[in-house]
Design a protein that fits this description.
Pfam families: DUF1232 (PF06803). This is DUF1232 domain-containing protein. Residues 78-108 form the DUF1232 domain. It comes from Zhongshania borealis. The chain has 142 residues and is an all-alpha fold. It has one domain (6-115). The protein has helices spanning 6-18, 22-30, 32-41, 49-64, 72-86, 102-114, 116-129. Helix 1 crosses helix 5 (72-86), helix 1 crosses helix 6 (102-114) and helix 3 crosses helix 5 (72-86). The radius of gyration is 17 Å and the shape is globular. The chain starts with 5 loop residues before the first helix and ends in a 13-residue tail after the last helix. Mean pLDDT is 84; it is low at 131-142.
């Protein structure tokens, strides 16, 4: 990680979050399959496949208007991290075997750390929304 530090990753996320707009949200969602394939196919990124799915679901639910409890800055950091994976010529070009995706992993991991509370709230929202209709979650006998 000599060429790419946690501070540089934080700078990337902060810049991207500041530039978030609806177009960037749509671009992120329209590239979902490509990003997921890149994450799945690369050893540096594949440990995060579950979290990447959650990030995409959060962005999708935000765009649909189904979940709006995420701060704009967190949403910007998420979209920046996801789109960063697509950039072939980022801090460490993805063409470099093994090392090429390490910067992507650093950005993604830092993003997950920075938005962890927002992800926890989102997952709680999703869990509550999937409760069987008509059943009380407070009554253990139902």
């Amino acid at each position: 990680m000599l060429f790419f530090s946690k501070n540089r990753a934080k700078h990337v996320l902060e810049e991207g979050a500041a530039e978030l707009d609806e177009e960037k949200l749509q671009k992120t969602l329209s590239n979902r399959q490509r990003i997921v394939k890149m994450v799945t196919d690369n050893a540096s990124l594949s440990p995060y496949i579950s979290q990447v799915g959650t990030l995409f679901n959060l962005v999708q639910d935000y765009v649909k208007g189904e979940y709006r409890e995420v701060p704009w800055w967190s949403l910007g950091s998420i979209t920046t991290a996801l789109l960063y994976i697509l950039m072939p010529m980022d801090a460490l070009p993805d063409l470099i075997p093994i090392a090429g995706y390490l910067d992507d992993a650093v950005v993604l991991k830092l993003c997950l750390d920075m938005v962890s509370k927002d992800l926890t709230k989102y997952l709680q929202f999703k869990q509550q929304g999937q409760s069987p209709v008509g059943r009380s979650t407070n009554n253990p006998e139902t």
